[in-house]
């Protein structure tokens, strides 16, 4: 079954989402390149010292990764809730193709990473690193092809990445949480219950939700569960006005839409690029071809490039062959292959999971090199395939 396209909705939130994510992806590319350049220049010492400078109880890097990224996860949660309840993922027929492709695109990279690191128990903890797709980066590359790629493929990629983000959130909650403070966790549960009660009471004042959300973040931080997940939980409590079969509700009617629109640009153009700049910087001095053969680096790079391609494309091919789904409208298999390759761009969420998986800075650097390598190869290969598709379809 092809992915449906609702004209009214494409002109509203989803269109703005695609545009801002694509443009933000280009800014993120620039931020990542700048971080690499600075980390390998005479400014490297100042760069790393600044990241480890303490502001109150946390270093600058921790404020970015724990506090700023909570806002990123808030937006992720809002997007997941909107799409599941009132968007392109609101019915099972719409969810089956991107949902199954996302599942395949998480399983295959994890298996490939484990194959490279099976002999080292301590390294297995990084299995989830190559399972993520960076929606901003991938859509940023796809946007370079403009109308030469069908809108349905952009929607498919966005839907797949949103479901992928949901999977990443679940993985972080289940596998990267330790040393729980039960008192703080109980407090967080009470605050979350309060937020749901406020929602049930029909309150639509965003400032109240956000103020209580700050308390939720603090308690989550103390509890041992990664504080950024407070953003996702807060998003689940924000009221949304459903408008099935019609253009999406206006910002005045739907607090969720209003908050989503307020956050899109700051997250896409400030928060994610700042995170990328703070975490993509890795010194390449002393890096050799032999050092690239480290299991962490190879497992992540191969997981992103080969794993995403195999996982996404094989699942889509199986569903289409069995008649459970059709390719997105106006798309062909070459374009699907190109998009499957772009799914291997796992920058933001992969970096985030990598920092949770390993505490050793040396291992973190190996993981970062794998992420950068796998993402770069996936982006270049995906672009080449899409270019070939354009030439093929343009022939008379």
Automatic annotation (TrEMBL):
Which Pfam families does the record associate with it?
Na_H_antiport_1
The subcellular location is: Cell inner membrane; Cell membrane
Instruction: Work out whether the entry's keyword set contains Cell membrane.
Output: yes
The organism's superkingdom is given as Bacteria
Catalyzed reactions per annotation: Na(+)(in) + 2 H(+)(out) = Na(+)(out) + 2 H(+)(in)
Q: How does it sit in the membrane?
A: Multi-pass membrane protein
- Write out the transmembrane intervals: 21-39, 51-76, 96-115, 127-146, 155-176, 182-199, 206-238, 267-286, 298-319, 339-358, 370-389
Please provide the record's keywords in A-Z order. Antiport, Cell membrane, Ion transport, Membrane, Sodium, Sodium transport, Transmembrane, Transmembrane helix, Transport
The record, for InterPro entries, names:
Na/H_antiporter_dom_sf (IPR023171), NhaA (IPR004670)
Q: What does this protein do?
A: Na(+)/H(+) antiporter that extrudes sodium in exchange for external protons.
Q: Which family does the record assign?
A: Belongs to the NhaA Na(+)/H(+) (TC 2.A.33) antiporter family.
**Name of the protein in its database record:** Na(+)/H(+) antiporter NhaA
**Organism lineage string:** Bacteria, Pseudomonadati, Pseudomonadota, Alphaproteobacteria, Hyphomicrobiales
């Amino acid at each position: 079954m092809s992915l449906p396209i609702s004209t009214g909705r494409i002109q509203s939130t989803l269109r703005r989402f695609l545009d801002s994510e694509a443009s933000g992806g280009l800014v993120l590319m620039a931020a990542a390149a700048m971080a690499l350049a600075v980390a390998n220049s005479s400014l490297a010492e100042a760069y790393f010292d600044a990241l480890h400078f303490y502001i109150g109880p946390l270093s600058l890097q921790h404020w970015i990764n724990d506090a700023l990224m909570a806002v990123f996860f808030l937006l992720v949660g809002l997007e997941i809730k909107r799409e599941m309840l009132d968007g392109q993922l609101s019915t099972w027929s719409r969810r089956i193709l991107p949902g199954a492709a996302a599942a395949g695109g998480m399983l295959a990279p994890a298996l490939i990473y484990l194959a490279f690191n099976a002999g080292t128990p301590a390294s297995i903890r990084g299995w989830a690193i190559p399972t993520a797709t960076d929606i901003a980066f991938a859509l940023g590359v796809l946007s370079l092809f403009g109308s030469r790629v069908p809108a349905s493929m952009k929607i498919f990629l966005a839907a797949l990445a949103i479901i992928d983000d949901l999977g990443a959130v679940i993985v972080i909650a289940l596998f990267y949480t330790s040393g729980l403070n039960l008192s703080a966790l109980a407090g967080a549960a009470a605050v979350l219950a309060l937020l749901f009660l406020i929602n049930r009471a029909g309150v639509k004042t965003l400032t109240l939700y956000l103020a209580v959300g700050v308390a939720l973040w603090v308690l989550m931080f103390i509890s041992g569960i990664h504080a950024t997940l407070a953003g996702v939980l807060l998003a689940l409590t924000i009221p949304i006005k459903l408008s099935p079969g019609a253009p999406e509700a206006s910002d005045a009617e739907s607090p969720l839409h209003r908050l989503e629109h307020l956050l899109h640009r700051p997250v896409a153009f400030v928060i994610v690029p700042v995170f990328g700049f703070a975490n993509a910087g890795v010194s390449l001095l002393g890096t050799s071809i032999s050092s690239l053969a480290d299991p962490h680096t190879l497992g992540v790079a191969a997981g992103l490039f080969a794993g995403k391609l195999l996982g996404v494309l094989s699942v889509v091919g199986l569903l289409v062959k069995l008649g459970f789904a059709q390719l997105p409208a106006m798309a062909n298999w070459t374009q699907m292959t190109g998009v499957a390759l772009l799914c291997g761009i796992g920058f933001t969420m992969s970096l985030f999971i990598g920092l949770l998986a390993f505490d050793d800075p040396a291992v973190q650097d190996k993981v970062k090199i794998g992420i950068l390598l796998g993402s770069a190869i996936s982006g270049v290969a995906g672009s080449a395939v899409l270019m070939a598709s354009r030439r093929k379809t343009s022939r008379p």
